[in-house]
Amino acid sequence: IRNLIVVLGDQLNHDSSAFDDFDASCDRVWMAENQEEATHVWCHKFRLVAFFAPMRHFRDELKESGKEVIYHELPKDGRKARTSSFASLLRETLESHPIERVVMVQPGDYRVEESIRSVVDEQKVKFDKRDDRSFFCSIEQFADWADGRKSMVLEQFYRTMRKEHDVLVDADGKPEGGDWNYDSENRGKFGKGGPKDVPSLPSFRRDKITEEVIEMVNSRFADHPGKCDGFDLPVNRDQALAYLDDFVSHRLSEFGTYQDAMWSEQKFLYHSRLSNAINLHLLSPREVVDAAIVAYKEDQAPLNSVEGFIRQILGWREYVRGMYWTRMPEYGEKNALQCDESQDVPSFFWDGETKMACVADSMRLLIETAYAHHIQRLMVLGLFAQLYGVHPSKFNDWHMAMYADAIDWVSLPNALGMSQHGDGGVMATKPYCASGNYINRMSNYCKSCPYKPGEATGEDACPFTTLYWDFLDRHYDRFKKNNRMAMQLKHVERKDKKELHQIRVRAKQIREGAIEI
Ligand code: FAD
Ligand code: SF4
Question: Is 406 found in the same domain as 264?
Fold first, then answer.
């Protein structure tokens, strides 16, 4: 065998650089479902199906196109392949076949790259790592952009990307509509009656392959969190394209206005739920951005929505990837707020058993679909973990376990950096910390909750609000150097000493589990 093409579970594109010089007479593709990837964090069942079902579909497409594939399938029987890992399976293949070179596209996880590289080195086989050209910005380009820069704010990067890729800019490089950003139009809340007639998402008939994967996951990983019986994500490119088309035709127009809003019992609101398909490379970010631009040009969606959506893909998504690859492996160890190493997420982050209406509703969605939208991630679950004092890498482990779209390059900067402020202000210049009043403003959750968002002490006190004041109090000295925190700290200074004492006591009780919340 000349080239063994390693295709990872999130590299499911036929136009990948890994196949550039593919010669069916002497090259083979290698793919592996393995126990280690499914268990190194305690993976949600839905998440496992979200990786394994598209992998098996991709394998069959490769075979149909004439490529020979060495594929390791995890068996239903839990005892078999109990200790398999990328490293052990690849070693087995390299020992049993004469192989000149291993070819692989830049993976999405530092740990996986290291483990594959170490086997290739050990087996003394040539290694050819290729660029992942599906991203707008290569890692080298990002490194150049970041080089010597004092401030790494997204906005500068995003404008550079807009100009470079000619997205919503005129011939002079000026932004479409006159502004770079329409955030002020994108903070809409649902009125008293809540969202009206939110279009439902497409659902695909599950085929035999997907059914088999669901059966395997339910049997092999029965004790893992979450459910997968309602699995409904796209498993191949055709389905992913149908998903994109549905979003652009039915939900993009309201995406911007309601991108920060939350409402109980809802699922996806006007969000795209495309992260999974994009991250697995079933869709390219460029075609997603192009589809949004066409919708704008054809008057199907207004500029505030289209720009807001494109900012997420061309801005945030590329930015977090650059951050990850230019800062790993040190980034994974960051703990700027010096959280206790042993502080894990609370038990209701696995089973949703809590009286807090906002957390319970976000967890309901997460358990059923391995999804929560951005504001639930950042301003409900992430916020709670931050205020509670969860160690940032433990929060990332939990995130990697529970979300179908989690891959380390995108999870770590968002979870450890943006959400937990573990990087001390690289991703966001101030922590996303807020009290229950914020959640009350952006949702209807508090109306059905036994707690009162405005209260920090007493039996009815909202745990977010108690923990918020305690958080500011605990980190007062650290944040007083940060101008953007001045207003919030002023409010702490004004707090009565007795109330502050009661807050500290209640926060400690919440953390120690002395109060059931
Ligand atoms: P939409 O709201 O429809 O947004 C459109 C697309 O923009 C998304 O599909 C996604 O591709 C992209 N996007 C938006 N925000 C971001 C962002 N901050 N970083 C990268 N891409 C972005 N996204 C992941 O894909 N995987 C993760 O593991 C992940 N972890 C996160 C952890 C936390 C704590 C937070 C706050 C955010 C995280 N995000 C992650 C970003 C974002 O929340 C999800 O991409 C989004 O909620 C996915 O749902 P959607 O497809 O409906 O997104
Ligand atoms: Fe969440 Fe507090 Fe509102 Fe209850 S009162 S829903 S815990 S923010």
Answer: no
Task: Give the number of other CB atoms < 10 A from CB of residue 448.
Answer: 12
pLDDT in tens, 76-97: 988 887 888 999 999 999 999 9
Give all strands of the β-sheet with 101-105 in edge-to-edge order: 69-72, 27-32, 3-6, 101-105, 126-130
What's the pLDDT score for residue 83? Answer: 83
Instruction: Tell me if 459 is assigned to some domain.
Output: yes
Structure tokens, 9: 């579970």
Bridge partners (DSSP) listed for residue 3: 27, 101
Mean pLDDT per block of 10 residues along the chain (517 residues) reads 97 97 97 92 97 98 98 90 89 95 97 96 96 96 93 92 96 94 92 92 94 97 96 97 98 96 95 98 98 98 97 98 97 97 96 98 98 97 98 98 98 98 93 97 96 97 98 96 94 95 97 94
pLDDT, one tens digit per residue, over 356-386 is 999 999 999 999 999 999 999 999 999 999 9
Residues 381 and 495 in one domain: yes
Rounded to 5 degrees, what are φ and ψ at 84?
Answer: -65, 145
Residues touching ligand 2 (Cβ under 6 Å) are 356-358, 436, 439-440, 445-446, 449, 451, 453, 462-464
Index of the ligand 2 atom closest to the CA of residue 437: 8
DSSP class of 184:
G
- Together in a domain, 104 and 143: no
Q: How far is the CA of 450 from the centre of ligand 2 (A)?
A: 8
| Gap between the Cα atoms of 262 and 275, Å rounded | 19
Q: What stretches of 412-455 adopt beta strand conformation (E)? A: none
Are 354 and 480 in the same domain?
A: yes
56 lies in some domain: yes
Q: What is the ipTM of this complex?
A: 0.98
Residue 130 and residue 107 in contact, taking contact as beta carbons nearer than 8 Å: no
Q: How many domains does the chain have?
A: 3
**Residue after which a domain boundary falls, among 97, 130, 163:** 130
Do 322 and 421 lie in one domain? The reply is no
Residue closest via CA to ligand 1's atom 29 equals 411
| 374 CA to centre of ligand 1 in angstroms | 6
Residue range of the domain that includes 318: 139-199+251-327
